[in-house]
Amino acid sequence: MTRGGSTRAWRALRAAVAERDGYRCTYPQPDGHPCRQYAPLAGPGAGHADHVVPVKHGGTDTLTNLRWLCAPHNLGRGTNPDPAPLRDWTW
Ligand SMILES: [Zn+2]
Questions:
Q1: E strand residue ranges, the chain
Q2: How far, in Å, from the CA of 57 to the mean position of ligand 1?
Q3: Residue 73 in contact with residue 25, Cβ under 8 Å?
Q4: Is the CB of residue 88 less than 8 Å from the CB of residue 19?
Q5: How far is the CA of 71 from the centre of ligand 1 (A)?
Q6: Is the pLDDT of residue 37 over 60?
Q7: Distance between CA 21 and CA 42 in Å, rounded?
Q8: pLDDT at position 1, please?
């Protein structure tokens, strides 16, 4: 789940996650390939910085525990496990 905060630190971290992931959704599909949906920082279709390990399960606000997801995948994921491990990939 995405933390709802809008602090300066969170905004900066969120932007860093988006840039690292190329503004594309990294949610693994059942075959292990990422979704790749383009999701900008703001505006229509904006992406979400998702906690790989949910905060309620001890996850932290760090780059290694965050990934960029399109809104449908972030909102649909909840705290469920991924359908498959993400394979090595490049855009
Ligand atoms: Zn997606």
A1: 48-51, 66-69
A2: 22
A3: yes
A4: no
A5: 7
A6: yes
A7: 15
A8: 45
Give the chain's radius of gyration (CA, Å). 12
Q: What is the DSSP string of 10-79?
A: HHHHHHHHHHHTTTB--PBPTTS-B---B--SSSTT--EEEESS-GGGT--SSGGGEEEE-HHHHHHHTT
**57 is written with which tokens?**
């399960």
AA identity, residue 52: V
Q: CB within 8 A of 75, min separation 6: which ones?
A: 48
- 72 Cα to the center of ligand 1, angstroms: 6
pLDDT number for residue 3: 56
49 CA to middle of ligand 1, Å?
12
The HSE-up count of residue 10 (CA atoms within 13 Å, CB side) is 11
Distance from the alpha carbon of residue 14 to the mean position of ligand 1, in angstroms: 16
60-88 confidence digits (pLDDT tens): 999 999 999 999 999 998 778 899 998 87
